[in-house]
């Protein structure tokens, strides 16, 4: 796990994918480094050091979600992105805020299972080979070598197994058919109710699996497919579920990150009429989760004291000061993300590791088409994106997706049949593709 990166290294890694927004990158880099620092403290001191949660304030499309997502990938932490607007306060039909901790635990379970799969992989492959040999040499698994005839048979079958083992490992038997018992996947059991079933959080799926017999069917499969099915069975048998649950809970409690988007939508003055379901109520329910509470999950109790919360919102019609004072106090760090300028669009088109221009070049290269961008072509793309954002709805860097898609639309469509396999995208080409948009003042055809 790369969670011992220095703040400077974290910012350098984020710079490879995200342009600008240095203040936000510095804030999240410090928050991540503080987790590593906390792990170095004495256990007594460690339990009192709480994470400093962050609010990112900025318009859409400037990189709020991307910073949090890349950060989680970088440090290998369980990460969950949720919208604050999908939760309602307890007592109303809708998702309960504690479910975000359960969802994060599921993410961690997936990560730990993947880790454990790699740990048992070698042993599982050995067991798969033995089972394949049992299928290829029927009766060799339970041969009685105590009788004189049995001893001779055992020796003969052993030689046959060794010959087949050599051929199996050399990959000569991949298409040979074998008969195998394959477990049928159980259909997930869903229970619909508005009586707060999430509160109970009983693992109904495994309960039904225990009650009802597992269904399996005999299938004729080539060895290459049988190997996949057997590897799945053997891996499952070798993974210790208890270890997975314990590790996942520990990972969530110490490394978990929740990105709480659209926080500004549950922010605002208390409603003077009617039940105020979506704002103050959700904030009140959110408070104990952010402050630190124990949430019951199917894998055991999970404490949320040391989970890092990164909240984000545009805050166009409201401001962070409109949040409940108690909730404001749990988000001590505030960073403002700036609007993108023309220079930023230029950098977004060229600098990131997988910049949009590189993505389109690679996609069309699969058809044998070479895309070349001239510097004035990229400048024209940035110019138009900036201008459209300025004169209509500002959707930040997402505007580049729509503009580039429009510019390469014809090449994408004609790609397989193009006689001339090299296309140069310069300023004249960009403007010829987008002139209809540039001419129309209302840009109605363009705004998606």
Brief write-up:
This protein has helices at residues 7-15, 22-39, 43-46, 64-75, 99-136, 148-169, 197-200, 204-211, 223-238, 241-255, 280-291, 325-329, 342-350, 356-365, 375-391, 398-407, 409-414, 427-439; strands at 54-57, 79-83, 177-183, 216-222, 257-261, 294-297, 300-303, 308-313, 333-336, 370-373, 422-425. The protein is of the alpha/beta class. A hairpin with a 2-residue loop joins strand 6 and strand 7 (300-303).
Descriptive overview:
- The chain has 448 residues and is an alpha/beta fold.
- It folds into three domains: 7-107 and 247-336, P-loop containing nucleotide triphosphate hydrolases (Rossmann fold); 135-243, no CATH class; 342-439, Helicase, Ruva Protein, domain 3 (Orthogonal Bundle), CATH 1.10.8.60.
- The protein has 18 helices and eleven strands.
- The strands form four sheets. A five-stranded parallel beta sheet has the order 2-5-8-1-9, sandwiched between helices. The protein has a two-stranded antiparallel sheet with strand order 3-4.
- The protein is flat.
- The two termini are 40 Å apart.
- 27% of the residues are buried.
Keywords summarizing the entry:
Rossmann fold; alpha/beta; 448 residues; 3 domains; flat; Helicase, Ruva Protein, domain 3; 18 helices; two-stranded antiparallel ribbon; five-stranded parallel beta sheet
């Amino acid at each position: 796990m790369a969670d011992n990166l220095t703040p400077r290294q974290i910012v350098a890694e984020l710079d490879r994918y995200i342009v600008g927004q240095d203040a936000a990158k510095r804030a999240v880099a410090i928050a991540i480094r503080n987790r590593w620092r906390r792990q170095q403290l004495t256990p007594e001191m460690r339990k009192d050091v709480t994470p400093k949660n962050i609010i990112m304030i900025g318009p859409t499309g400037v990189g709020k979600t991307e910073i949090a997502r890349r950060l989680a990938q970088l440090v290998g932490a369980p990460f969950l992105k949720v919208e604050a607007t999908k939760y309602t306060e307890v007592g109303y039909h809708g998702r309960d805020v504690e479910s975000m901790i359960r969802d994060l635990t599921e993410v961690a379970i997936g990560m730990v299972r993947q880790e454990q799969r790699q740990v048992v992989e070698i042993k599982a492959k050995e067991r798969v080979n033995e089972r394949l040999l049992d299928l290829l040499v029927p009766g060799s698994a339970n041969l009685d070598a105590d009788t004189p005839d049995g001893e001779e048979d055992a020796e003969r079958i052993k030689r046959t197994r060794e010959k087949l083992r050599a051929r199996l490992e050399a990959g000569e038997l991949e298409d040979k058919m074998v008969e195998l018992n394959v477990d049928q996947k159980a259909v997930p059991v869903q229970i619909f109710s508005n009586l707060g079933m999430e509160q109970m959080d009983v693992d109904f799926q495994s309960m039904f699996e225990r009650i009802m017999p597992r269904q399996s069917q005999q299938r004729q499969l080539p060895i290459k497919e049988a190997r996949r099915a057997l590897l799945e069975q053997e891996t499952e048998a070798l993974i210790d579920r208890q270890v997975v649950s314990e590790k996942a809970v520990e990972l969530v409690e110490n490394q978990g990150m929740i990105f709480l988007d659209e926080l500004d939508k549950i922010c605002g003055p208390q409603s003077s009429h009617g039940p105020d379901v979506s704002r103050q109520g959700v904030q009140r329910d959110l408070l104990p989760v952010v402050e630190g509470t124990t949430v019951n999950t199917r894998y055991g109790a999970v404490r949320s004291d040391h989970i890092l919360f990164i909240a984000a919102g545009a805050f166009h019609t409201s401001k962070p000061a409109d949040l409940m004072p108690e909730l404001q106090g749990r988000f001590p760090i505030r960073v403002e993300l700036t609007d993108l300028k023309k220079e930023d669009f230029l950098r977004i088109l060229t600098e990131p590791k997988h910049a949009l221009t590189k993505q389109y070049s690679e996609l069309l290269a699969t058809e044998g088409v070479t895309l070349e961008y001239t510097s004035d072509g990229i400048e024209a793309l940035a110019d138009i994106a900036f201008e459209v954002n300025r004169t209509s709805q500002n959707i930040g860097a997402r505007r580049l997706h729509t503009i580039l898609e429009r510019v390469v639309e014809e090449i994408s469509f004609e790609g397989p049949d193009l006689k001339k396999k090299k296309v140069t995208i310069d300023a004249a080409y960009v403007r010829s593709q987008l002139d209809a948009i540039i001419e129309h003042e209302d840009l109605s055809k363009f705004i998606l």
